[in-house]
Design brief:
The structure is a single chain. The chain is an alpha/beta fold and about 600 residues long. Strands 5-6-7-8-9-10-12-11 form an eight-stranded mixed β-sheet, with helices on both faces. About 50% of the residues are buried. Helices cover about 40% and strands about 15% of the residues. A hairpin with a 7-residue loop joins β5 (about 220-225) and β6. The longest helix is centred in the C-terminal third of the chain and has 34 residues, at about 470-500. It has 17 helices and 15 strands.
Length: about 600
């Protein structure tokens, strides 16, 4: 196999490596200092704050962007094979363990932005008992949270075609052409529309929330007739065509009052992902994408300005929330938001996600301090979330933010070992399988995945030279290895918890499996050879189709042991991936780095000066 590089890709590779080599570890914005005691009075009852679940479609046409080549340089590009099967059960576990506390998801519900990902998360959203909202993240409507392509004109945009192919469901055995993949991607406009349809379905009759039409330019300006509702109002604008990424959805929340509280607290949920330009592969390499920098445009600022004015007139405190952390908002966005915040007569607080590491930070808008709590991820270690409430010292005009780190044992975790132990006690301990056995399965899976991923030069050649058949063969080598490990994980699920708890006999088997069950068919597929590239691709599709059928089946499992097992393995897999990755490959996520950012801290205060 000839792996020599043409001259042009060599130049691109050299530039890409230079950029990647220059990427330094993220800096630490100083956390707030220790606080003197005050006379704080509770303002709100607790809510649950979390982010970055990143449900991922792994069985579409393989994308080199997702096969591990980029993962060699950006470690969260490809997660352990257990993640696409089990990670959403972590969010399910949180939802089911906090049925009476409203929930705010700070964005990145999806990963590649596929219809299949959205379908799974909407199913979970409909099952929620508590009020909940989702702020859009950069992965919610952009390919991998980076690429902003014109999916409307697939024929003239090969990258948008890749997006749809990567999202293509393998259920229909006859799908063979690129055109058959149309409509599999979820644009920013699609995401907003689907989310508002879900919100409307969960509201009481007579709410009056009308989602925008599924095509065309539209807007939503809605106020909840129930003054005590968690979701108070929505302002949204949706655009089609090449401007789909400039769409936005802002939400106004009323946080539940603490008993006897004299002031209300409102939260303005921003959409920090407005993008006006097309972003492709070279832009992503240069790191000029919303994966790095968040943006709020003037139309959104104008739409939410009345919310600030109304809250101030009512004497309520306003807290700001958005997906991107404050330091990763563009300077002009920070200026626009700052103009709104500086008029507030109370201390400033901002809630964010996006970093996957979590921290407390103290920023300044002019001379006024702004306290930021950045929640961690539910897809990468440290997997954690926060129980959030607010208190106020009226005499000193200071706000206390209580952000209890969860899960916890008798007290909040003070290190990674305690955080992992809390997860294990509440999920793994209910499975009936030795924790060591489950941990060893995860370590083996992570090592196999890391050992079979690609190289950056392969990604570049396959991206810019689709005629290179040997490059495409390499792409499918990596894709086969990933599907093989997912099939192995499925077999381990059945072995560990049994056929009854796994309900494996209920999986609708593909026709090419004949009379075989899941385990026997998986073993057969892993053992088959392929002499030609078309046959190799067909073998991949057969594996992916079986994985997809099982994955859909997993969504419907209600057995407590099965649900605990999946949440447990997803957490253990994320921790194993973290432990098996050299610290220099995940800048800013080491325990020492997070400790410097006060990750384990559970409360902080902020005043006017």
């Amino acid at each position: 196999m000839n792996r020599s590089l043409p001259f042009a890709p060599r130049l691109v590779l050299a530039g890409a490596l230079a950029v990647l080599a220059a990427c330094a570890a993220p800096g630490i914005t100083a956390p707030p200092p220790a606080d003197a005691p005050g006379r704080f009075v509770p303002l709100t009852a607790p809510i649950i704050a979390l982010g970055d679940t990143q449900e991922h479609e792994s069985t579409g046409f393989p994308l080199i962007d997702n096969d591990g080549a980029v993962d060699s340089y950006v470690e969260v590009a490809q997660r352990p094979p257990e993640a696409p099967l089990f990670s959403r059960r972590i969010l399910e576990w949180v939802v089911e363990n906090h049925p009476h506390e409203p929930l705010i998801h700070l964005g990145d519900v999806l990963d590649m932005s596929c219809r299949s990902e959205l379908k799974r998360m909407l199913k979970l959203g409909m099952a929620m008992r508590q009020p909940g909202v989702v702020l859009p993240g950069n992965h919610d409507g952009l390919l991998f949270g980076i690429f902003n392509h014109d999916v409307i004109d697939i024929a003239g945009d090969k990258d948008a075609r890749r997006w749809n192919m990567g999202c293509r469901s393998p259920i229909r055995e006859g799908v063979a052409t690129l055109e058959d993949a149309r409509g599999q991607a979820v644009t920013k406009r699609d995401f907003i529309g689907a989310y508002l349809e879900l919100a409307a379905a969960r509201l009481d009759p007579g709410h009056g929330l009308v989602p925008p039409a599924r095509t065309g330019i539209g807007s939503v300006s809605w106020r909840n007739p129930d003054d005590d509702a968690f979701l108070m109002a929505v302002e949204a604008r949706v655009n089609d065509g090449r401007l789909y990424a400039s769409s936005f959805m802002a939400q106004l929340l009323r946080l539940p009052k603490a008993p006897g509280a004299k002031r209300g607290v409102r939260m303005v949920g921003l959409d920090t992902n407005q993008l006006l330009t097309i972003v492709g592969a070279l832009d992503a390499i240069r790191r000029t994408s919303p994966g790095d920098i968040g943006s709020v445009d003037p139309d959104q600022v104008d739409a939410i300005r009345p919310w600030f004015e109304t809250a101030t007139a009512a004497g309520d405190i306003v807290v700001l929330a958005g997906h991107h952390n404050w330091d990763h908002l563009s300077p002009v966005t920070r200026f626009r938001i700052g103009q709104l915040l500086e008029k507030l007569p109370h201390p400033l607080v901002y809630l964010s996600a996006h970093t996957h590491r979590g921290y407390w930070a103290l920023h300044h808008i002019g001379e006024r301090p702004l306290l930021e709590l950045n929640v961690s991820s539910l897809s990468d270690w440290p997997i954690a979330y926060r129980r959030l409430s607010f208190e106020h010292d009226e005499a000193a005009n200071r706000i206390k933010v209580v952000g209890e780190l969860l899960p916890r044992e008798l007290s909040s975790a003070s290190n990674d070992a305690e955080l992992l132990r809390a997860w294990a006690a509440q999920t793994c301990a209910k499975v009936g399988v030795p924790l060591r056995t489950l941990a060893e399965e995860e370590i083996a899976a992570v090592r196999n995945q890391k050992g079979s991923r690609g190289q950056l030069w392969e990604w570049l050649v396959a991206h810019f030279d689709e005629s290179c058949e040997s490059c495409q063969r390499i792409l499918f080598d990596h894709a086969h290895a990933y599907q093989d490990q997912m099939l192995t994980t499925i077999s381990q699920l059945v072995k560990d918890i049994g056929t009854e708890a796994s309900g494996i006999a209920g999986v609708e088997m593909p026709g090419y499996c004949g009379s075989q069950g899941v385990d026997d068919c998986a073993k057969d597929l892993r053992s088959r050879e392929a002499a030609t590239l078309p046959e190799y691709i067909r073998r991949f599709r057969e594996k992916a189709r079986l994985v997809d059928r099982v994955n859909d089946h997993l969504d419907d499992l209600r057995d407590p042991k099965a649900k605990a097992y999946m949440a447990c393995r997803a957490v253990l897999g994320a921790k194993a991936d973290f432990d098996e990755t050299p610290e220099g490959d995940t800048p800013g996520r080491s325990e020492a780095f997070r400790r410097a950012g006060a990750f384990f801290r559970v409360e902080a205060t902020v005043g006017m000066r």
